[in-house]
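Reviewers of the previous submission asked for a worked example of the structure-prediction workflow described in the proposal, so we include one complete record here. The input consisted solely of the amino acid sequence. No template or homolog information was supplied to the procedure at any stage.
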Amino acid sequence: MKKPRMILFDYGHTLAWEPSQDYLKGNCRTIELAVENPLGITGERLHEISSRIYGELFAQLRPLDLETDGLKLDGCIYDTLKLKFDRPLAQVELERWRATEPIFPMEGVKGFLRLCDSAGIRKAIVSNLSFSGGALIERIGEILPEFDFEFILASSESVFRKPSRRIFERALALAGLEAEDCWFIGDDVVCDIEGAAAAGIFPVWYRSPLKCTYKKPADHSPRCEHMLVESWDELGEIVRAL
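From that input alone, the workflow returned the following structure tokens.
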């Protein structure tokens, strides 16, 4: 095994821990930000409508490994409901996400990122996410402000979502590297580990002891060659030995 030239990181439950998700709270925050609401839409009603529309779209796109552009979908929903705001929708989206989900850096991840910097290992992020790439950049900056990533790629900006080869191939093209030069670190067996392996990238399965709040544990181990680690310190020891 050789030291990677770049590590591609998953975001949720890999770099960031999200102890809770409350989409109703997020939609209530959206209503608080509305400066015009002639139909009297409540946070509860917006949550009901948004959940239904997002759910319908997810049911059609996710089996095809395609992603929703949530920022544009939000605009469609808000226009239909005659909601108006005094700020760009990107700011409304960010405020909604902040209200929906607090985030914290995973324990030990900062030490590992510092190790990458000292070892000359380049860093980037590839995340399955219907929130916009701009919002993801903002949230990464909230929890890891002292670190630079060469690019932060959200599936909402790419049409394709992991495990599609296309989003991994885009990341490699942005990096200017071959697949064998990179590792991909993530928590999702299918999207991250099997998806990266199918694209020729060596996958590291980060299996955190913390419970994920938005998806069930995998029902099988990765059906591909991979490395399993359960802490960033453990992975750091492996990298130092290379």
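The mean pLDDT is 96. We consider this example representative of the routine output the project will generate in years two and three.
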